[in-house]
Amino acid sequence: MVKKNIDVEPGVLGIDIGGTGIKAAPVDIMKGFLLDERFRIATPQPPKPAAIFSVLEELIERWKWQGRIGCGFPGVIKCDGNVHFTANLSQEWIGINVQKAIESTSSRKVVAINDADSAGLAEMKFGAGRKHNCHGGGVVLMITLGTGIGTALFVDGHLVSNTELGHIEIDGKDAERRAAASRRKREGLSWKKWGERVNKYLQAVEKLVSPDLFIIGGGVSKHSDKFFEYLDVTADIAPAEMLNNAGIVGAALAVEL
Ligand code: BGC
């Protein structure tokens, strides 16, 4: 179904590419809310560039989008616009310029950044991190627990992009292979068992960056009552307030970076 044309300003189409689903919605970037219901399409398997680009085209077409587009991508995108690393999508992505590729098919202005960084931008501006989004705001680490583990580091409200702290080693393994939300389901772990893994991960990360605040995001953030009791860190800890919409809203905010 093709949706009505939504006015372009201050609307930005936010697209959040994940290892499991690709979600999008037009976003009011001044107020931080969705201007229409979000729409989700399962990430094509294998998650190769051509298949994912055709999903992106479908999403842009769904709203007949005329304005700017912000895109969160589950991997390292440096300021040259190229993908340098991705753990949960095909390795064919390495070296692809996501921004330019979407711009060339859509003729829209596009900004692409790491998906955890985009979720963090949304939480810092409109959600759990907003009190820290200023000079003297200290260190905030947003952690997204989903298919993988994403991290977004903010110092006095400034994003230090592409931190990739989801790949530190815990018990000889890549941390996201122990503590991502996907592992709980895949291994049939209880909330307690998985919560203890998340706790071990947070304690290790805390030693590295000493945050004042951890924000825990990803779809699982709406179940914080089930696992926060197992988390024991020195920093304050809060669930993402924008829940799973942080990725879409933050992707849209990236156009203003
Ligand atoms: C990727 C990160 C990404 C995270 C969440 C990790 O596997 O390396 O770049 O932010 O997954 O999607």
Write a structural description.
By secondary structure, the protein is α/β, with parallel strands linked by helices. 30% of the residues lie in helices and 26% in strands. Strand 6 and strand 7 form a beta hairpin. Helix 1 packs across helix 2 and helix 3 crosses helix 8. The longest helix is centred in the C-terminal third of the chain and has 19 residues. The structure holds beta-D-glucopyranose (BGC). Beta-D-glucopyranose (BGC) binds next to strand 6, helix 3 and strand 10.
In short:
By secondary structure, this protein is α/β, with parallel strands linked by helices. The protein has helices at 49-62, 98-106, 115-126, 176-179, 181-186, 191-209, 224-227, 246-253, and strands spanning 11-17, 21-28, 33-34, 39-42, 69-73, 75-77, 83-86, 110-114, 139-145, 149-155, 158-160, 169-170, 173-174, 213-217, 236-239.
Average pLDDT score:
94
* Cα shape: globular
Percent in strands: 25-35%
- How many helices in DSSP terms? 8
Structural class from helices and strands?
alpha/beta
Radius of gyration, in angstroms, nearest whole number: 17 Å
Tell me the major beta sheet.
6 strands, mixed
List the bound ligands.
Answer: beta-D-glucopyranose
Low-confidence stretches: none
Helical proportion, percent range = 25-40%
> What is the CA–CA distance across the termini?
32 Å
The arrangement of helices and strands along the chain is EEEEHEEEHEHEEEEEHHHEHEH
Total beta strands: 15
